Beta-defensin
Amino acid sequence: MKLILLVLTVILTWAQAAKVMKCWGRSGVCRTTCGAGEVFYILCNPEAQCCVNPKYLPVNTESSNSAGSLG
């Protein structure tokens, strides 16, 4: 009986791990809600968000209102 429970536990755990979809260059995970320390950046599909650690997101270091040097 213990063997059956062990095998069932392993199979169910493996089946859930196989369903994980990666996104954002394999740095993010598709989920319905993002966890703590993750941010939503793009949609994986209509039901899931791409949850990414903020350190993997592009950072705009230049202000969009800056005129730059003209002369």
Remarks:
- The first helix runs from residue 2 to 18.
- The first strand starts at residue 22 and ends at 23.
- The chain is about 25% helix and 25% strand.
